[in-house]
Write a structure and sequence with these properties.
alpha+beta, four-stranded antiparallel beta sheet, Alpha-Beta Plaits, 4 strands
Length: about 100
C-alpha cells in the first residue's frame, strides 16, 4: 500500500483556494499544495446540471494524514459537499518523497 497521496479538491475562487492551500501546508497536513486555475466543472446538483469555473487544488501528503486532511478541508470549505478525493502516489523520486516526509511531521 502506498504511503503517499495526492488529494484533490476544487474551490470557487482563487482566494479560497489559496487560503485552503496555505492552511494545509502551515498545519503540516501537506508538504505542498498546487493551484490550477480556470477549470470548468459540469456536474449534477440538486436535480439540475450546473456549470462553474473553479480552481483545482492538488495536495501532496502522507496516508497517515488523510483523515485529518479530509476533516480540515471539509471544515473550512465553502461548498456544502466539497470534492475531496485521494489518489495513491505509486512512485516518485526518493528525494521528493523524503521531502514530503520531512514537511508533514
Amino acid at each position: 500500500m502506498e504511503k503517499y497521496l495526492l488529494v484533490q479538491t476544487s474551490c470557487s475562487t482563487r482566494k479560497e483556494a489559496e487560503t485552503l492551500a496555505e492552511s494545509v501546508v502551515q498545519a503540516r497536513l501537506a508538504a505542498c499544495a498546487q493551484l490550477i486555475p480556470s477549470i470548468t466543472s459540469i456536474y449534477r446538483w440538486q436535480g439540475a446540471v450546473e456549470r462553474n469555473e473553479e480552481m483545482l487544488v492538488l495536495v501532496k501528503t502522507r496516508k497517515e494524514h488523510l483523515h485529518a486532511l479530509f476533516e480540515w478541508i471539509s471544515d473550512r470549505h465553502s461548498y456544502e459537499v466539497p470534492e475531496i478525493i485521494a489518489f495513491p502516489i505509486s512512485a516518485g523520486s526518493s528525494d521528493y518523497l523524503a521531502w514530503i516526509d520531512k514537511e508533514t511531521r
